[in-house]
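Please describe what follows:
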Amino acid sequence: MDEDIRRQSIYLASVDLLRRLLRDEKFEKSILDRLNRKNAETMGCKVIDL
């Protein structure tokens, strides 16, 4: 598997997890947004809004 596709797949899986946490109101949206931005930066992906 191409490295870029692998990183994007992992990032999209993390976005799904963060959206579930937001939906279930486990954490504040601001915290999850910060995690999402940092994860995208680390993985080298474009940020997808929660």
About this structure: The mean pLDDT is 96. The chain is about 70% helix and 0% strand.
